[in-house]
Amino acid sequence: MNDHSSSSGIATRSKKKQRLLTILLAISLALNLLIAGAFIGFQLRRNHHERPMPQHMRWITRSLDENTRRVLIPIIESYAETTRPLRHDLHQARRNFSQAITQPNLNDEQITHASDELQQASHQMQSNMHLQLVVIMKQLSAEERMKAMQFLQRRVKRQARPEHRKNTTQTQENFK
Predict the structure, then answer these.
(1) pLDDT 10s digits, 129-161
(2) Which residues contact 158 (CB under 8 A, 6 or more apart)?
């Protein structure tokens, strides 16, 4: 009886070791695949010199033919590089303004200064983007410009719908 219990204990330990090794192997395989996938993806992007299209300009290229898209993508990507510092300044100005108006003791001077900075950063960003849009539109045919304007008009109408402004109304009510 002693031999039987010791052999079943060995078999149980052996099964536990086998299960543990199987789990460790599966985890190791998953990690290796993740690392290999990330490395391959990085190499493919680097080798093809592909940079992601800037989000705020992606809509322009959606309906364009391949030749026009090839001409515009480098222009749009270079604009993304010049816009990045302006976008950073705008985000920083928003944070500063938010911080100024959420202080326990409101400081009118600090709020006014933060508001002025936010308006200036917003104006610089919008001016830059509008100039970029003009340059890009000059590259398009009349038909492509019409499609772009129709897209912009639909986008403005969607943003103007009341259901998109529910959070704004709720926020305004919180300050009453």
Answers:
(1) 888 888 888 888 888 888 877 877 776 677 666
(2) 164
Angle between helices 108-138 and 66-101 (to 10 degrees): 180
Q: Which fold has domain 55-160?
A: Four Helix Bundle (Hemerythrin (Met), subunit A) (1.20.120)
Q: In the numeric block, which tokens belong to residue 14?
A: 């052996």
The residues near 174 (Cβ < 8 Å, ≥ 6 apart) are none
Measured distance CA(44)–CA(39) in Å, rounded: 9
10 Å CB burial of residue 113 (0-12, 13-18, 19+) is middle
Q: Nearest CA to 132 among 86, 78, 70?
A: 78
pLDDT, one tens digit per residue, over 59-78 is 667 667 788 888 888 888 88
